Every structure is written in structure tokens, then in C-alpha cells.
């Protein structure tokens, strides 16, 4: 099979089953699997092969059965970005519209954050529930939001660890099967993928992001679920907050109708597609109107409070985000010149927040929930020299001072007016 793929051949379903089950059982050694991944990296996979690989990985461990919960269940996945707190807003809005959401999310690594870490900044919030309790909660209040169970998709965990060490992460069929297998195992009928492109995204290149989106939608649909993908811009952070409790605060403000324009707009559009996938609305546009209604009526914010209470957290944060962990030091960063913000080094800002303690460079790192960066100026804004463009939220003064120049260097200026980038480029 290594030879067949190296020569550009197409593997059968039986061969892929043999490979993945043998690898998970420890019968196929890492060195052979690594060579196979490298062959896939150079030769690619057909949609058919990729679908077999995805189904094989999805069924390598526990699969969640959501059939006892009435209605079409929908899920969402973001390929990750800086300041991407979309799930915290979107999931309560969708659930408030009566669409059941049983969602499993990840932790952050590197320059991107993870929903589970953000939720854990809410005092008392439990992101791990026994499966029975998880399902009961969705049946009772229409929503649950937890970390991925350790028993799901072991093939992906093992394969990803190998890819990470053998320069084979950046293979579209391997990325697509890794992501889609986890979504299939999580049991939803419909999945909306938010595929980010640009400097702060996992896939920086737009054409590559489109290829990834097309591959995931194709294999998701071939696997018998309904998948759609939205390609959204990650050339600057989403919203203004980067860092866990700062992002929860911004999500709450957004649910109360006081959030930043880009985050609010993205959540309404993504929610519209989720309502459409759940067959709750006749079109994504009608779905977005439904989400707007959930936002303006306060039902989304109330659902978030209900979710927090159900998972042991202090729901008073919805009324008073000041109860979330607060950084002792807030340090301003000022503009070094007059001009329009032309570009922001989004990835570098994410790394800067990570170094403050908002993220992890290795899986074992401990997160500081209260630290991060808040942006006052974004692409297209005009500022004069000396105006505050960002604030660093740090645990001590030396940490804040060390970040100041780094944050300032992430801003690039123009003497000519700059327009704001379009948030969504394409839907697949
Ligand atoms: N995210 C995943 O879940 N898998 C990959 O392979 C890459 C990014």
C-alpha cells in the first residue's frame, strides 16, 4: 500500500480498512505509516479514498448517537483563528431558536485559541461531562458544549501525532479526513464548516483554504451527512478581544447586541446556515433573520446563561462579565504615527497573546484566563500618533511592557484610505 500510493495508485476501501485498523491496533509500525503519509502528501487522494479514510477513522473509537434527541442536530467547526469566539455566540443563538446542538470543541494550541479554554474561564464551568449527562442536557435545554471525549477517533490522535513529527500535517486529504472524522463521530446530521483563510488562519493561502473546504464538504456529504463551508477572512483578529476571559466578555456583549460588527455579522450568517442545514429555515438568509431575532430578543443571551448553569458555572457573568477573571495590569499601546491601519500581523498578535499566557506553545502549558490583548484599532481605521490602538492585559508589569513593542509592530500603516476587508468570500 505504501508502494501503491507512492506510484500514484488508488487504494480500495479494504486496503484503507487494513491500514487504519492495523495502525490503531499497533500491528502496522509508525515508520510504515509515516512513509504512507508522505506518499499521500505527494500523491494526494481521490474523494473516494478520502471518504473511506474518514469513515474508517471516525469508527476507530466511540461514536456519539444523537438519535434519541428529536429534530435535526447541527454542529459547527472552525479551522481556527485569532480571537475566534464565534461558537460562544453562535451556539446559544442556534439553540435558542430550538435547534438542538450537542457540541464538542477543542483546546487551543499555538497562535489560535480553543473554545474549551475560553469556557473554562467562567468560574465553575465544567467542560467534561459523562456521555449520558451530555445527552440528557441536550434533551433538556437543547444545548451542551464540552471538550472532545478521550475515547473518540483514536486513529486521528495517533495519526496526527505522527504527522506532526514527519512534516505531513499540511496535506489536504489528511487534514480533511482528520477534521471530518471527528465531526462524523460527534453524531450531528448537518455540519457547518467555518474555513478561515489569511495570515491568522491555519490555511493562510486562499486557494488552499478553498480546496480544503471543497474536500471536507465532498467527503462529509458522501458520508451521508449534510455539510456546508463558509470561507471567512482571518487577516485580522475577529472582534477586538484575544484571550480567554476577554473573549467570553466580548461574546456576552455580542449576545446582548453590543458586540463588534464583524463578530456579530459572522455569527448571524453562520447561524443562518446552521438553521438552513437543520431545515429550520427555507434559506440561509431566512436563517440569519431568525438568528437576529434570537439576538435582539435576548433569547440567545438567556440560553447562554442556561448553558452555563447546566454545566456548573456562574451564570451571573452574563449580567456582569466583571465576575470573570480580571488581569491586574492593563497597559496601553499607542500609535507611532498618523494613518490608516492597512494590515495587522494577525498570527504574530496570536503568538503575542500566547506568550502572555492566553495560549499554549505545548499541550502541557497552563493557561492564564485573564490575560490577552484588546484591539482599539482595526483595518480601515484612521488614527493619529499617540492614540491608543490596543491594550495589553497582563499578569505583571514586566510582561505587559515586554509585549508593548511587539503589539505595536503588528500594525502596518498607509497614508491613503483603506477599506475594511469583506468578512466572507465564498460559500461551498
Ligand atoms: N486540525 C485537525 O483537526 N486536523 C488536522 O489535520 C489539521 C488541523
What ligand species are in this complex? uracil
Please summarize the sheet with the most strands: 4 strands, mixed
Total helices: the number is 16
Name the helicity range. 40-55%
Distance between the termini: 32 Å
Task: Provide a quick synopsis of the model.
It is built from 16 helices and 13 strands. The chain has helices spanning 2-6, 13-24, 30-43, 47-58, 86-96, 115-119, 131-141, 154-165, 172-185, 206-222, 244-255, 261-277, 284-296, 299-310, 346-358, 397-409, and strands at residues 74-78, 101-105, 143-147, 190-197, 226-233, 241-242, 329-334, 339-344, 372-375, 382-383, 388-394, 411-414, 424-427.
Tell me about this structure.
- The chain is an alpha/beta fold and 428 residues long.
- The strands form 4 sheets. The protein has a 4-stranded mixed sheet, with helices on both faces.
- The chain has helices at residues 2-6, 13-24, 30-43, 47-58, 86-96, 115-119, 131-141, 154-165, 172-185, 206-222, 244-255, 261-277, 284-296, 299-310, 346-358, 397-409, and strands at residues 74-78, 101-105, 143-147, 190-197, 226-233, 241-242, 329-334, 339-344, 372-375, 382-383, 388-394, 411-414, 424-427.
- α10 links the parallel β4 and β5.
- It folds into 3 domains: 2-44, Up-down Bundle (Transferase, Pyrimidine Nucleoside Phosphorylase, Chain A, domain 3); 74-149 and 182-318, Nucleoside phosphorylase/phosphoribosyltransferase catalytic domain (Pyrimidine Nucleoside Phosphorylase, Chain A, domain 2); 326-414, Alpha-Beta Complex (Aldehyde Oxidoreductase, domain 3), CATH 3.90.1170.30.
- The longest helix is centred in the middle third of the chain and has 17 residues, at 206-222.
- Bound molecules: uracil.
- Uracil (URA) is lined by residues 160, 169, 174-175, 178-179, 202.
- Uracil binds next to α9.
